[in-house]
Amino acid sequence: MSDYKKQRFKRGMDLLKKMGRENLMLDQKELAPELYDISVGHLFGDVWARPGLSLRERQLVTLAANIALARPTGNHSHYRSSEHLGITRKEIVEVIIQVGHYAGWPTISNAVRQYNAVIQEENDIKKGKKKKRELI
Amino acid sequence: MSDYKKQRFKRGMDLLKKMGRENLMLDQKELAPELYDISVGHLFGDVWARPGLSLRERQLVTLAANIALARPTGNHSHYRSSEHLGITRKEIVEVIIQVGHYAGWPTISNAVRQYNAVIQEENDIKKGKKKKRELI
Amino acid sequence: MSDYKKQRFKRGMDLLKKMGRENLMLDQKELAPELYDISVGHLFGDVWARPGLSLRERQLVTLAANIALARPTGNHSHYRSSEHLGITRKEIVEVIIQVGHYAGWPTISNAVRQYNAVIQEENDIKKGKKKKRELI
Amino acid sequence: MSDYKKQRFKRGMDLLKKMGRENLMLDQKELAPELYDISVGHLFGDVWARPGLSLRERQLVTLAANIALARPTGNHSHYRSSEHLGITRKEIVEVIIQVGHYAGWPTISNAVRQYNAVIQEENDIKKGKKKKRELI
Amino acid sequence: MSDYKKQRFKRGMDLLKKMGRENLMLDQKELAPELYDISVGHLFGDVWARPGLSLRERQLVTLAANIALARPTGNHSHYRSSEHLGITRKEIVEVIIQVGHYAGWPTISNAVRQYNAVIQEENDIKKGKKKKRELI
Amino acid sequence: MSDYKKQRFKRGMDLLKKMGRENLMLDQKELAPELYDISVGHLFGDVWARPGLSLRERQLVTLAANIALARPTGNHSHYRSSEHLGITRKEIVEVIIQVGHYAGWPTISNAVRQYNAVIQEENDIKKGKKKKRELI
User: Fold this and answer.
1) Of D30, D65, D72, which has the smallest distance from its Cβ to F72's Cβ?
2) Using one digit for the tens of pLDDT, what is the confidence trace for A39-86?
3) Are F46 and A42 in contact (CB < 8 Å)?
């Protein structure tokens, strides 16, 4: 790996830690290590780490895009990293309401279901009912 | 119109003015006045006017959703109201880059083309080459 | 809650009962009571309750939109309310075939899988194998 | 062409005439005659011509799917064939409002703009200002 | 069933066997036999069986479309039929990386999760831990 | 710019030339030079230039993804670069037919209209009626 790629990987991993996301995308690492390097190094090290927007705002617009696109998997972790960065439950609900009016009611239903599932899982972990986060 | 609907319409119109959007959606008024009332009254008076997110953040997440969805029309005005609310060109470009990685490169191309067209139109208006904003 | 909002909530809830949907969206109520009020009051009380289309036709076009958009969750209940309103299995299949040609074959596969799952669950409930509807 | 394909082509063309759509999809004929045969023969002769839904309802669900998907081109003609089949302006507006709540506000804006353009073009043709329909 | 429809059904079924997909879409058969006939006969017998692209390339572009659209169900089987036709794991990963840049990172995450699940299921079947393929 | 970024930019530009795309994305350069660097350097230099699929196949799957997503702008240039790489008109039509069955008929109409417009523009340039390619 070139020095540049090593640096951007480190920058990406540092940011992932700051967001509480350092244990994600490991299935990419397993299937295709080079894809994992693109995700950590390019997406997080070169894009997320850019100046021009605060990390909070970058997380808010990413959460908005993900709620709007309503992909089958991959959204749950963004509710978690939003909370990790200090975005409150009330604020996340506002993003769901606002974006849902632009992307349609089924994206509201979907987001509410996903966010409730994340909240439930966190509670189960706190109470010791569950050991590992499974919603990603 | 009930008092409630009158109030929410006024609240919506006040917000639209604050965002420089008061001359938009007039084609809805022409085709279907009740739809115009839902858009001004419900969408702007009851949703956009909610507390819980600043107006700047509400505009940022809406811009993000619109860039991600890349609908054929309706995005241009959000670059304008973003700037009207003080979001800088640099910040808008960052939203395009960030969201584009979550919604795919064609949404980057599309957003850049739309935003450049808005900037061009504003310049043409300043120089007196154009009298009316046409991109909505 | 203003009188207007109380009235539209009641109108929405009455309609939900007519469609057999009165026990849905309770996860919204749990996460964010104001969102639940918007869904019952605005979406059902102010939009679904509008004149201009019969309830059967409003359900048909909503089913069509949902099949076309193929969101991860939230479609199952519309097969149920369609049947509740007297739309036959044969008619639902025709909507799937027709819309699927406009939204692509994966939306056909997805709709068939969802509708079969609903039919199965209803059978299980009739036979006492299952106590509660879980597909929403 | 086999007898079956000839028959389904005729069935499709007859239906297209009934809907006022017989002069559409000629760009497919020009680029790829076999594709035109699939569109007329399979889509209209074998799918649209199926029993189980009235032609009015088939048009309503197709209009709904198209509004929800908001593709860049191809929607205009469905406002026209809807009116050709007796669906009123008021009903089309209701489909836009209903579907727009499931597919998001930008699909409302987009549909209103398209439908207004179709209405304008029809007026221009009636007044002799325009000779040919161009919105398809 | 007309002779033409019988022939195209056979042609479709032959192709499905060549792709290892002959046991799929049986839920369509159960719900609506005529839809199953359209899927086997039209989609596979009349479309997939067309000349002009090799079967490998037709599978590659279909895999690409499915990854881009990221529908909730229906993608898993295309990783399987791709491998059945000799497309390697390395090549499938490249399609995911390439298409993911045009459809956005969540479609990469989604595809990786689906493909890993298929690989896992195949391993479980080889080891006798599982008897039947369930991911479709 | 680091050496790595210079190298990947050159690798990207070389590939763009090979595809006849070297004059594209200049509006990105104008609005945001760093975005242009990401597009040329990361998307073309680091992704398109990857081994594992031939350039022809990479173009085919990209064309497929773009037809399926049917974004308002940005597709025209891919019909051109496909032809530039030796993919025939007949093959492009097959991609449209195949993908259109997975993404829905409006994506067929849209692709046919775009591809016909590109063919027309190329003819106009050959005949000297037009000087510059405008469809991008």
Assistant:
1) D72
2) 999 999 999 999 999 999 999 999 999 999 999 888 999 999 999 999
3) yes
Residues C56, D60: Cα–Cα separation, whole Å: 12
pLDDT band at residue D136 using 50, 70 and 90 as cut-offs: confident
Cα separation, D122 vs D116, whole angstroms: 10
**Residue B8: its pLDDT value, please?**
97
Which residues in chain B are contacts of C42 at CB distance < 8 A?
Answer: 42, 46
Give the SS3 label for residue D25: coil
Residue A122 C-alpha, separation from nearest chain B C-alpha, in angstroms? 23
Report percent pLDDT > 90 for chain C. Answer: 93
Q: What is the mean pLDDT of residues E101-115?
A: 97
Q: Do B110 and F73 touch (CB under 8 A)?
A: yes
- DSSP code string of A34-47: HHHHIIIIIIIIII
Cα B61 → chain centroid: 11
Q: Does E27 contact F at CB distance below 8 Å?
A: no
Write the DSSP string, F56-101.
HHHHHHHHHHHHHH--SSS-HHHHHHHHHTT--HHHHHHHHHHHHH
Q: For this complex, say whether ipTM is above 0.85.
A: yes
Q: Which of C50, C72, C55 is nearest to C17 (CA)?
A: C55
Q: Model-level pTM greater than 0.90? A: yes
- The confidence band for D72, taking pLDDT boundaries of 50, 70 and 90, is confident
Say yes or no: D104 contacts chain B, CB-CB below 8 A.
yes
């039929």: which residue's tokens? E81
pLDDT for C62 beyond 90: yes
What is the chain E residue with the closest CA to A44?
A: E105
Closest C-alpha among E84, A26, E82, D95 to residue E96: E82
Instruction: Report chain E residues whose CB lies below 8 A from the CB of A39.
Output: 105, 108
For position A39, what pLDDT does the model report?
98
In sign, the C-alpha dihedral spanning E101, A115, C66, F73 is: negative
Can you tell me the distance from the alpha carbon of B106 to that of B103, in angstroms, rounded to the nearest whole number? 8
Among C16, C35, C79, most A C-beta atoms within 10 A, so best to mutate, is C35
